[in-house]
User: What shape does this take?
Amino acid sequence: MATIERYAAFTGDPAGGNPAGVVRDAFDLDDAAMQKIAADVGYSETAFVTADQGDGNYRVRYFSPLAEVPFCGHATVATAVALGPGQYSFTTNAGEVPVTVDDNGRATLTSVPPTIRELPTPALQALLTACAGARTTSTRPSSRRWRTRGRITPYWPRGPGSGWPNSTTTSRRSRG
Assistant: This one.
């Protein structure tokens, strides 16, 4: 039977940070079992260590309550902290992720590069239809959250200082 651990990443306080489920012994779990566990845990993601490849290398998969996702930073940090101090390499659906955990339970990772691709037209239309009831105009002329010119266009900031995470993230161990 798999052991489910609950961690809070990016915090020193178990009541704060980003909660993530961690299952370090998911070697024999199939997709349906991992999906059910993630749904039962109820966090945005739960990480599953599905293989120990030796020398600190692990196969890790991530499931939200609704579907498998290719990568999750805070669940990666939580998994590494659960494994204890050391240097690790996680093979994820998004690529290889090196993670280091120090003796104080602080984890540092280098994230996979983002992947950007065109959204197929039917999916885009479905999203726009779903957003039709969302705020499509700004109450402040200077707001850049939503730009409208007859269509809904989400604004995503880019570049230094824009709020996009950098490639290195650190967290303190905390169990929730």
